[in-house]
Amino acid sequence: MILTVTPNPSLDRTYEVQALKRGEVIRAETERMDPGGKGVNVSRAVAAAGRRTVAVLPLGGAPGALVAELLHAQGIEVAPVPVVGDTRSNIALAEADGVLTKINAPGPELSGSEQELLLDTVRSQSRDADWIACCGSLPRGLAPSWYADVVTRAHAGGARIALDTSGRALLEALRARPDVVKPNAEELAQAVGRPLTTVGDALKAAEEVRSMGARVVLASLGADGQLLVSDTGAWFGSARVSAVRSNVGAGDASLAGFLIAGGTGPDALASAVAHGAAAVQLPGSVMPTPADLDPAAVTVTTDVPVDRELREPAS
């Protein structure tokens, strides 16, 4: 079982439009409504693969009730933490050329008692978990050290933990030595305090993040591929993609694919790349099923192309 923790979930509305023009009335071609948040997306991808997952998340108001309903409909067990504030609603505008514009609401502020209940729920639900995936931003009320506390408690209980967050929350958590961290290029650059312009730059940054405490780094480099860096070596994975439809949740699908395949080594990286590549070819934040995957399109190698310039340099 893969347990996911999403401290700041959302109700996501995605609209596909031909082009985004400021100040004009834009008519959407399609509309989707999905439960959102990085950990929620990991659970959705795990469930789509036919595996058991439990999603721990604070939920409040009508948006929170709808998030729980949508998750149940996808076969996901929900361990809700009731909160007074309403769960946030986010909007994504996906243009025909693949450009995505997102508007993310701040979300509710958790009280002291709600924070304790969230930690207690993670503890009670983690007994049967093979992996705990803690993902996303922290809501108002939670200290930057909150993820570090979760990592420490998870390890004390014998669980493995994967972390996908950024900024100070990531830096604080690294001291607790999470088993896996999954930054993107921007988050890597932020963690090491310098820009990344090549795959080699990203590799050095990933190695530095390992020296800061991460046992394994799974780095998403967007269209350039993914890096896996551990104490046994470094691998680079990429995949052929025919057309990008939406990259919402693609990194979360990658993390799910990595954990589903065991969370270690090149085979897990290949699974991560396959899941991420499939996700970007689906609408909105739809998570790929096994039928959507194309393992033959994936390449994993120890020959990391260190001189390759990133198509989207990170600053």
From TrEMBL:
Question: Where does the source fall among the domains of life?
Answer: Bacteria
Keyword ATP-binding attached: yes
Gene this protein is translated from: pfkB
Return the SUPFAM superfamilies for the record: Ribokinase-like
The UniProt record lists the Carbohydrate kinase PfkB domain at: 9-290
InterPro entries listed in its UniProt record? 1-PFruKinase, PfkB_dom, Ribokinase-like, Tagatose/fructose_Pkinase
Q: What is this protein called?
A: 1-phosphofructokinase
Enzyme Commission identifier(s): 2.7.1.56
Q: List GO terms (cellular component aspect).
A: cytosol
| One of the record's GO molecular function terms | ATP binding
List this protein's GO terms for biological process. carbohydrate catabolic process; small molecule metabolic process
Q: Which family does it belong to?
A: Belongs to the carbohydrate kinase PfkB family.
